[in-house]
Design brief:
The strands form 2 sheets. Strands 1-2-3 form a 3-stranded parallel sheet, with helices on one face. Strands 4-5 form a two-stranded parallel ribbon. The protein is elongated, with a radius of gyration of 22 Å. The longest helix has 18 residues. The model has no long low-confidence stretch (mean pLDDT about 90). Helix 1 links the parallel strand 1 and strand 2. By secondary structure, the chain is mainly alpha-helical.
Length: about 290
């Protein structure tokens, strides 16, 4: 009988979860529960890398995130759910990995400069922020995880973890009679649907452009009505370009196929206006999130 492979993944508790989290992460986790031995954790130590000056939001968010996970279908009878800081070996292993990881490996991580550029209001010139890939590596190899569910943009992080593991195993293999100490984790590529915020930027708490899972119907309506749609469409009867429209992307994730096809045709023909379409989408999202 084949041994069930193990998956490890976590979410930083820096605020409520939004639609991007649900479609890009949580729904994939729900599916993985059927085929893998899943370990899902609230990454509160990771949250400190950017929220070290606002720790209250971390403890507050942790409970809300857990409630969101359960509501979305993460099942404690199928998965191991835990808080990162409650397992002190995460920090201990990060410290040991730091002793043998070249500084240049950390400086070349793509997201290191990207996050600094996006969060200019925060001082991220810290050892903790530079070294967060080591904590990520510890999170995974501590449990001898076979796979880490990621999008294509996160594959470089997994490759760095694999390099660190190879270096660790090479240095200490002799002390263990030639056997490897840690498994090299493999990326488990998961679908991350295109989901931008109402301002057409990536939906992110940093940009304050999120539709949160806990938003009230009135808040959802207000956010959807503020959305930027087809930039080339000025008047209602102008032919539209659904592939350029943010609301059409929302339809593809939340509407039935008949509605998607109808909206596409009517948009191209100029028989449905952006305001009418946004009102319809707002009610669709409200209905979609009501059970949650």
């Amino acid at each position: 009988m084949a041994v069930q492979q193990r998956v490890v993944s976590g979410v930083r508790p820096t605020g409520n979860l939004h639609l991007g989290h649900l479609h890009g992460v949580i729904q994939n986790w729900v599916k993985l529960q059927a085929d893998y031995d899943c370990f899902f954790f609230i990454a509160d130590w990771h949250a400190l890398t950017t929220e070290y000056d606002n720790p209250k939001i971390i403890s507050q968010s942790a409970r809300e995130i857990l409630a969101d996970w359960l509501a979305a279908g993460i099942d404690p009878d199928k998965s191991t759910i835990f808080i990162q800081s409650e397992v002190k070996q995460h920090a201990e292993l990060q410290l040991l990995l730091a002793m043998l990881t070249p500084l240049g490996w950390l400086e070349r991580v793509p997201s290191f400069k990207e996050i600094q550029q996006n969060l200019t209001h925060k001082d991220l010139n810290t050892y903790g922020f530079l070294g967060y890939p080591l904590l990520q590596t510890a999170d995974v190899i501590l449990y001898n995880a076979h796979r880490v569910p990621v999008g294509t943009d996160q594959v470089p992080h997994i490759e760095l973890s694999r390099e660190i593991v190879r270096r660790f195993n090479h240095i200490f293999r002799k002390a263990t009679s030639g056997t490897d100490i840690f498994l090299e984790p493999q990326p488990l590529l998961t679908q991350s649907p295109k989901l931008l915020g109402p301002d057409r930027r990536k939906m992110s708490k940093s940009y304050d452009n999120c539709i949160y899972l806990a938003d009230s119907p009135d808040v959802i309506r207000k956010k959807v009505m503020s959305a930027i749609t087809d930039p080339a469409r000025v008047k209602k009867d102008d032919p539209g370009h659904p592939e350029e429209c943010l609301i059409y992307d929302y339809h593809k994730l939340h509407s039935d196929q008949a509605t998607i096809s109808r909206v596409c045709e009517e948009c191209k023909a100029g028989t449905i206006g952006c305001v009418e379409d946004k009102k319809m989408m707002a009610e669709t999202l409200i209905s979609f999130l009501k059970p949650h």
